[in-house]
Amino acid sequence: MKNMNKILSGVLISSLLLGTTSCGDAFLEENASHTTTDALLETGSGALAMAAGLYGNLRWHFGYEWAYATTLYGCDEFTMGSDETSLGWMDYNTAELNPVGSTRRNHPSPADLWNEMYYGIASCNLLLEKAPLIENEQDRNSAMGEAYFLRGYNYYRLFCQYERCPLQLEPIDVSAGVPRNFKLASGEEVLNQVIDDLEHAYELLRADDWRGAGTWTKYTAAHFLAKALLYRQSERCTWKSNYPAKADLDRAIALCDEVINARGLESDYNNLYANWTGVDCSIENSKEILMAALHNDASTTQGRYGNRTYNYFTSQFNTYSGGWVPRGQYIGAMDFQRCRPTEYTYASFDNVNDSRMWKTFKTVYGICNYVETPEYVAPENAPALGDQGILFILNKKNDTRFHKNEFGRAEVEHSFINPETGKWVPNVAPIYADGEYVMNQYGNTAPNRANMYCGINKTEDGSRTGEKNDAHRDVIMARVGETYLVKAECQVRNGDDAGALATINKLRERAEWKAGEDREYYVDGSIAFQSNTTASANCVKGNKDASGRSLTNQEAFRYSFIQKNSYVLSTGVERPSDGNWDKSNLQISSWNNLPEEDVAILNTLGLNASTLEGKINFILNERTRELLGEWDRWDELSRTNTLIKRAKLFNPEVLYIQDYHNLRPIPQTFLDGLTDDNNEPLSDDEKKALQNPGY
Asked: What letters, b where the CB count within 10 A reaches 16 and e where it falls short, cover 197-227?
């Protein structure tokens, strides 16, 4: 039997599948020497094994620069540091999207997502054809449910990015040659197919995690089906009037309620990301997680697309720190400085009452290498190993305590002495000084290319055994926290403003500081280094103590990982004398009394919460606070037709953005491979007619 290689318009459609049926994490493990063939699908057990292999398609999303380029760049939440690897995705210079001949050799192509989604779709089509071979009805339904779910999800991603694409719903027989005469379905047809596939998945999938942690369940399908129905009633869908709004929105709300009631929220936001203690640790089993790209430390499952997300969110500390904080696996991230939060992102948080800010941003790095203190610093203020080497102050614009000339990086003379420790901090930056946004002014490049900033911690991974090795933690792709926000937006669009606010308040309740909770406590996935097998090895960067002795990785970890944030210094809130913090309050009493952060953002947008547009933009702000960096911001802004406006107002790097950038370009490689009904190549005019407007 020939290998299972299917071709769609010149693109190899081969499933990167992992063939095994065991439960738990083992269902992603494979025999490293196996070859995936059609013969495997000629038996029921083989078809069930292939259904397990569908999960491997999700790993692609996080194995390279496209992870953030297609989902986070060019939006309102992140601009970039001084690294321009994916510049075209940030500034919308269409010429940059073609990496051929570019010095930015890792620049993702517009075809990458397109191609990989069809790899998965081809696998789903083949599985749906062969699934009837599975004799056990429950197993057959589960396998078919998984195939319908992944196909629906992949078409959802294609619709979000490109809108129009071919709808291929059965395996392609290439025995008579490679077919190249494909038609682009309309956006309406594609989204309706998404809804249809997800409806099938919802009906067929089990409610339990029958394969183990990470299983796609009925509630995974329900979450994405609710999102698709909401999309059909959103601004980008100019055909939405073809479908009764109330019917779509009521169904979406009911689906969200089903997910919320069955799965629920984690009690502590830290349990989603920050309390990650190592491979397959307990927080990866959270019921709040509805879908994740599964990873572990098994070399047989790493494949080409390991987890590379730990590279993208931290600033370039190894470069600007002056040698005080060298990079190593003992720090849970690399410093590729791809995604730098914008002023909007920092300003959207209530820095006193919203614990999500302090459980998301990493504000302190400890000194893990001896550097001689500059002569201008008094000896009594000289820092030592384990003291603060990098400090970020997450303050507000009206904060009058700080002045611009007090701060900077180690190589620039500055006078900041932390009043809490009495020590000079080599690298320190507030968000605001003298009423001006200055977080972008202390790097070693111009403000629009600043490499020094406070980054987020959701991908930190201290389990890596090499400085540049792949990460091992799962990547969350959907969770119940988002389900609440999908429900709230459906309620707003349905005219139930009071219900929407109640839904949002329930989510915000989780974000409140609990009574007695230590607001200065900090943790992230770097903590996994406590059991790292490289702990006793010396640091590859040559970290030393004051005597010149080389430090081990374990010592560097102990010095660098300070489990205390900059909350008190940033907010000016007095630390309670008895150490017993009060509960905070994030509840919103009415749409006419939104938090001051949101009022300021809506004012900048020229909106207020009395309008539907104002309410939707408030929910987008709440999505920032709840879901920052969670891989779907571009899709959400495109869906609501807010991308162009919000990006222009809040991101200094969207230099070339135009209205037509609300869609991605149909890949030119796809268009170049098409033929007409007479099997003749398309003319340039015919290809241009198929391209999305503006490209």
From this structure: bbbbbbebbbeeeebbbbbbbbbbbbbbbbb
Distance CA 270, CA 524 (A): 8
- The total of other beta-carbon atoms located within 10 Å of residue 357's CB is 23
Query: Please, are residues 265 and 480 in contact by the beta-carbon 8 Å criterion?
Result: yes
The one-character DSSP state at 95 is G
- When pLDDT is cut at 50, 70 and 90, the band that residue 40 belongs to is low
Chain segment 625-673, per-residue pLDDT in tens: 999 999 999 999 999 999 999 999 999 999 999 999 999 999 999 999 9
Structure tokens at 612: 């539907």
Q: What is the DSSP string of 42-54?
A: GSHHHHHHHHHHG
3-state secondary structure 308-357: CHHHCCCCCHHHHCCCCCCCCCCCCCCCCCCCEECHHHHHCCCCCCEHHH
Distance between CA atoms of 475 and 456, rounded to whole angstroms? 15
Which H or E run includes 262? helix 245-263
In the numeric block, the tokens 């953002």 are attached to 601
CB 155 within 8 A of CB 197: yes
CA distance 633 to 236: 15
- pLDDT per residue as tens digits for the range 109-150: 999 999 999 999 999 999 999 998 899 999 999 999 999 999
User: 8 by DSSP, 3-state: which?
Assistant: strand
For the question of whether the overall pTM of this predicted structure is more than 0.90, the answer is: yes
- E strand or H helix that includes residue 14: strand 11-14
Query: Could you give the count of Cα atoms lying within 13 Å of 620 in the half-sphere of its Cβ?
Result: 30
The region that residue 518 occupies, defined by phi over 0 for left and psi between -120 and 50 for alpha, beta otherwise, is beta
CA distances, 150 to each of 414, 506, 544 (Å): 54, 30, 50
The answer to whether the CB of 563 falls within 8 A of the CB of 521 is yes
